[in-house]
Amino acid sequence: MPTPSRATTITRRALLAAGGSLLLAGGAFEAVDQRLLPGRSTMYRVLGLDGPAGRIPDVPPVPSTSGTFVSAARGGRTVGWTIAAPPSATPLPVAVALHGYGGDHRTFSGNALGYDRFLAAHLRSGGAPFAVAAVDGGNRYWHRRADGDDPASMVVDEFLPLLGDRGLDTTRLGLTGNSMGGYGALHLGGVLGAERVRVVAALSPALWTTAGDTARGAFDDAADFRTNTVLGRQRALDGIAVRVDCGTGDGFEPAVRAYRQGFRVAPAGGLEPGGHDRAYWRRTAPDQIAFLGRHLTA
């Protein structure tokens, strides 16, 4: 048998190496996909597994009003607010929108998440009218902190009365939010209960199953996490219509999946391709808006 040439030998070696690399890559993909290795969110984004990006509707937004007030519950901080509400001869129900980490009251309007335009499109399609009202909570994860800053009390004791003074019907109350605000909506909904809240719609809520996994600053310490986690407290939302959405390429997906599984009756929404980003949040916004409107006006 002829002796293989050096070129042939190199080619075979290259093929073997390439095959081994493919096997290693496949193994790494599986390990990342099963969260045995970090990087699942990045991998899904790079491989185009997050699904199509949502787009803000090209329609005129509902009218918005903005202002500020000094919050005693937040230690004298001046906080901003924005209300997006269609004209109405009667008091409208209201969904309070809680922003994510790094956001503020403007997150839900304009070119950010565009809820003022999604709400307008909802109304054009015959959806029930309601208002969306957002307020600044800082990066404090929407619960009372050890330094006395209490954005949850600010919402209940200061912002809701402001909304009532401006003609909105706070007895028909909804809560919504994305990321940190998604957690905040679930937490505050459980604190207030069905006597105060009709509907909660959480988008990619920032949830963790253990204190050791939490982001720095989300909770003061392990005791604060145990006091304020929403996992294991799903019964606090009994009697409230609940929707929870999260992308499968989102780093919070495992905890959100565990949270959804903790309900006796599965909440609306679900897990579908998407990242922890505006592309997914805008894609999910029409369903969130429709869910809020349906249950606020039922």
From TrEMBL:
InterPro entries: AB_hydrolase_fold, Esterase-like, Mycobacterial_A85_antigen. Pfam families: Esterase (PF00756). Residues 1-30 form the signal peptide. Keywords: Hydrolase, Signal. The keyword Metal-binding does not apply. One of its GO terms (molecular function) is hydrolase activity. It comes from Curtobacterium citri. The lineage of its organism: Bacteria, Bacillati, Actinomycetota, Actinomycetes, Micrococcales. This is Alpha/beta hydrolase-fold protein.
